[in-house]
Amino acid sequence: MADKISNKQIFFNPFSKDNPVVVQVLGICSCLAVTAKLEPALVMGISVIAVLAFSNVIISLIRNTIPTNIRIIVQLVVVAALVIVVNQLLLAYAYDVSKQLSVFIGLIITNCILMGRLEAFAMGNKPWPSFLDGIGNGIGYAIILVIVGFFRELLGSGTLMGFQVIPQCFYEAGYVNNGLMILPPMALIVVACIIWAHRSWNKDLQEK
Amino acid sequence: MINKQSNVYTIAYITIMVIVVGAVLAFTSMALKERQEENAQADKKSQILQAVHIATTRSSVIADFDKYIVSQLVVNDKGEEVGSQDAFTIDVAAEAQKPADQRLLPVYICKLPDAGTKYILPLAGMGLWGPIWGYVAFDDDGSTIYGAFFDHQGETPGLGAEITKPAFTGQFPGRQVFKGDNFYPIEVVKAGQKPLSPDVDYVDGISGGTITSKGVGAMFDNCLTPYRAWLEKSAAGKTSRASVSVMTFEIDTDNPQTAFRVMTEADTIPHTPGEKINVRATIAETEQAIAGAEAEADRNLARKAASL
User: Fold this and answer.
1) Which candidate in B13, B153, B207 is best for mutational testing of the A interface (most A CBs within 10 A)?
2) Checking DSSP bridges between strand A163-164 and strand B202-204, what pairing results, if any?
3) Which residues of A fall below an 8 Å CB-CB distance to B?
4) B58 lies in the same domain as B195
5) Is B55 touching A (CB cutoff 8 A)?
6) pLDDT value for A115
7) What is the ipTM of this complex?
8) Which domain holds residue B83?
9) Do B273 and B134 reside in the same domain of the chain?
10) B15 lies within 8 A of chain A by CB
11) A205, B49, B130, B281: which could form a disulfide with B54 (CB 3.0–4.6 Å)?
């Protein structure tokens, strides 16, 4: 890329204007799988931030040595190795979190955002901007996950982070949890609503 | 400058990368193995204690386990103790795959200061996406469930994963596996429905988590059935098991026509075997007792007639 983008833009753009989920529509599968509850959504978000930042840095460091015809394989190996290391560390030092996370390991490796950022950014930029890009995109992804998880858990189970937030008197008055919110299709519908709200806000993202 | 597009470079690059990555992963695994195993064991201990409603923390779990679990034994499906292996190290998931008569069945005996002796039995089965497992604690009558704990590897959050929640596990305490002389591991049915056989104690499954719920039912059936002999043996000599209903019958031996009144109660009434008024009986036994009483009444009548 010829036009110079400042580090600040690299970091902040993915939050909204260049958000990986609602603008680039990447990482939808994991968005669907882990957002029935807020807690796994949060854990998944944090893990993706960590893996994305470090894989971006590593790929950026070795970018000039990678043979172009096997670059996707090299990127995959780096991501997979990092995810395994992170999982091993969690197993040793945060066992309960790792029990939450272990299911989603496969999802992190195959998350399109990771491959997308490695290929589009880290392969052509220095380590520091790559690190910021990884953190920024990870946060952009995590924000959407947490928003979706928030609505799905609140409306689907009446809880947040496992704590009951809808008071018992509501249920006694006839309120019923919306079971549809827990089912996967609602993740897509909630994401679509977020995209709708986001594009109404940012008029320049609207397509003619 | 090396030609980065050449095959030699590519192969060399990949070889080095695989060796480096392999070494890093092997090192991480070796360095952390001990801690991970400790965590896994502590986690298992805390799961066992949760079946008897004891919540522990990572720092206190080992001390709590040693305090409450007074002994561990391994039994076979005939109810005999086999002393070949430490109960804690048995891989329950692997045992559950074997035919019932070849299984090693671990039993954890727990003494609670306020609730007495409990038997904790491990369970293992399959949910929708992967393994599920659990621990179920029985009262010392060998039939009444005191508590249950379930966990899973990857059931859907909000659906199948709800088996770990108190809303599901809380249904188990008080259910009984022995009904008269029959053994029925607890059934899991669709919420609002009843099992085919009216005798069986059941719990409601989870809406939207049908396959996981069925997995729990299958796990109870597969894992508890081999324990039947041991549970029967361990309960012998203690307060007799409650049956499906306690038949209370009074028989006026002089007047067989209005001779009996049968009352059924769903609740457990503790009683000692041989007690006169409350007799643990199946319907067949009750009928037999009534027939016997009627026969005796007939004999009394005959005697009266003879004496006249």
Assistant:
1) B13
2) unpaired
3) 34, 36-37, 40, 65-70, 73-74, 77-78, 81, 84-85, 88-89, 91-93, 95, 99, 102-103, 152-153, 156-157, 179, 182-183
4) yes
5) no
6) 86
7) 0.75
8) 49-235
9) no
10) no
11) B49
Q: How far apart are CA B154 and CA A113, in angstroms?
A: 23
Q: Model-level pTM?
A: 0.65
Structural element, H or E, at residue B72? strand B69-75
* Weakest mean pLDDT among A66-70, A181-185, B123-127: A181-185
Model confidence over A91-126: pLDDT tens digits?
888 787 777 666 676 678 878 888 888 888 888 889
Residues A106-127 as b or e (16 or more Cβ within 10 Å = b): ebbbebebbbbbbeebbbebee
Q: Do B21 and A81 touch (CB under 8 A)?
A: yes
Domain count, chain B: 2
Q: What residues does B263 pair with on adjacent strands? A: B248
Look at residue B137 and tell me if it is in a domain.
yes
SS (H, E, C) B144-172: EEEEEEEEECCCCCCCHHHHHCHHHHCCC
Q: At what angle do helices A127-157 and A112-120 cross, to 10 degrees?
A: 160
Measured distance CA(B47)–CA(B55) in Å, rounded: 9
Same domain, residue pair B165 and B261: no
pLDDT of residue A139: 92
pLDDT score of B72 more than 60:
yes
Same domain, B67 and B155: yes
Q: Has residue B29 been placed in a domain?
A: no
Q: Do A70 and B14 touch (CB under 8 A)?
A: yes
Mean pLDDT within B208-217:
91
Q: Is the dihedral of CA B216, B221, B226, B230 positive or negative?
A: positive
Please say whether the dihedral angle defined by the alpha carbons of residues B2, B6, B8 and B11, taken in this order, is positive or negative.
Answer: positive
Mind telling me how many Å the CA of A91 is from chain B's nearest CA?
Answer: 6
Average pLDDT over residues B131-141: 91
SS3 B114: coil
Do B115 and B250 lie in one domain? The reply is no
By C-alpha distance, the chain A residue nearest B15 is: A74
Q: Between chains, do B157 and A37 touch, taking CB under 8 Å as contact?
A: yes
